[in-house]
């Protein structure tokens, strides 16, 4: 074979190799395949008070997580979409296996991770990916628990362990085993009640059936809808329709009585979409408390309190807001709110001037 023939054969082979390993059809550009193998942890080892508290196979634990790769520009596919999405599952909470192996390139990629995974790849949206999210305005909870509510606890992945953080997770053939911290995209509300000094406890008619928050004059400051919204996987941003009322109702037979004076007791809880602080609004938000017998509704009664400053405050994702109430004979008083990350390592509290209606 002459030199010219060898040259053309070399060029032809090079073109074949290039054509068979394009950005859209080839994942690995290394001699030896390198597969993605992340480890997963709930951010800051969130306490058992959170709705989803840790990875594992027990009820209320994360055991299946979606994973998707893109280029680090955030929107161009890392490779063929069919080859960059998988589900990681665990049988012991520490070892994770992918339903499909994702072979990494030397080029850096952006890793998205989320819970719950419904078996469908996320949708491209601008410079990120999104998954469907449902957050009804009316939720139920088990009053005998602090974590069993009807609302799904949506999580997104971050490279940082700080609650509410959204640091991008990057991977490559030389960085195939990242630690993914699952962050809570929602905020948690908890309501506690104690009897006010001088109020005689009523162990028959003081069971807390439900608590609802309603904005005044039709202004919508909450986000909730029975129709699906979206969760952005890069930073946990939630997009939902506005609503004027959100309600948390105890499931049948699980209503709780208020705590004794000086010993407030949790009586209602649920998950809500984060919202910004409204610095200008003087529009009060009403808290409506339904009390009655545990097993009957004939003698139910509703007490209402309103406060503009308290509920117009910010609700940050990954944080818990505990509203402390006091029950008098015919009134409910908003005493204070405690604001903490679900790790209970940061936050603060705010005393609230008594406002009774």
Number of helices: 2
Instruction: Look at the structure and give the mean pLDDT.
Output: 80
Number of strands: 26
Could you say which overall geometry the principal axes of the C-alpha atoms support? Answer: elongated
Q: Give the H and E element order.
A: HEEEEEEEEEEEEEEEEEEEEEEEHEEE
What percentage of residues falls in helices of 4 or more residues?
A: under 10%
What does this structure look like?
This protein is mostly beta strands. Helix content is 6%, strand content 41%. The chain contains two helices and 26 strands. Strands 1, 4, 5, 6, 7, 11, 12 and 13 form an eight-stranded mixed β-sheet that branches. The longest helix has 17 residues, at 3-19. The chain is elongated and about 80 Å long. The N and C termini lie far apart (99 Å).
């Amino acid at each position: 074979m002459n030199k010219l023939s060898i040259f053309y054969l070399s060029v032809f082979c090079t073109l074949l190799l290039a054509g068979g390993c394009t950005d859209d059809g080839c994942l690995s550009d290394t001699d030896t395949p390198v597969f993605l193998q992340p480890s997963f942890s709930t951010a800051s080892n969130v306490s058992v008070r959170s709705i989803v508290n840790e990875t594992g196979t027990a009820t209320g634990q994360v055991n299946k997580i979606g994973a998707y790769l893109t280029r680090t520009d955030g929107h161009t596919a890392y490779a063929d979409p069919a080859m960059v999405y998988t589900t990681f599952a665990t049988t012991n909470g520490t070892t994770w296996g992918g339903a499909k192996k994702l072979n990494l390139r030397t080029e850096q990629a952006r890793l998205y991770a989320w819970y719950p995974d419904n078996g469908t790849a996320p949708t491209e949206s601008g410079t990120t990916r999104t998954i469907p999210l449902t957050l009804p305005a009316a939720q139920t909870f088990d009053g005998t628990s602090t974590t069993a509510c009807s609302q799904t606890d949506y999580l997104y992945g971050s490279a940082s362990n700080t609650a509410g953080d959204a640091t991008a997770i990057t991977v490559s053939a030389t960085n195939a085993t990242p630690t993914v911290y699952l962050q809570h995209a929602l905020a948690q509300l908890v309501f506690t009640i104690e009897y006010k000094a001088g109020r005689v406890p009523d162990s028959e008619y003081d069971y807390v059936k439900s608590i609802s928050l309603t904005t005044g004059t039709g202004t919508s400051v909450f986000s909730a809808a029975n129709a699906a919204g979206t969760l952005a996987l890069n930073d946990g941003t939630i997009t939902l329709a506005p609503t004027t009322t959100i309600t948390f109702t105890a499931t049948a037979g699980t209503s709780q009585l208020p705590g004794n004076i000086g010993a407030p007791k949790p009586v209602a809880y649920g998950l809500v979409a984060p919202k910004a602080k409204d610095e200008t609004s003087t529009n009060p938000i009403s808290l409506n408390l339904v009390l009655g017998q545990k097993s009957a509704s004939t003698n139910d009664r509703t007490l209402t309190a309103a406060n503009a400053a308290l509920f117009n405050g910010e609700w940050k994702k990954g944080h818990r807001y505990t509203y402390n109430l006091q029950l008098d004979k015919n009134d409910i008083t908003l005493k204070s709110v405690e604001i903490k990350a679900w790790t209970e390592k940061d936050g603060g509290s705010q005393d609230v001037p008594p406002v009774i209606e």
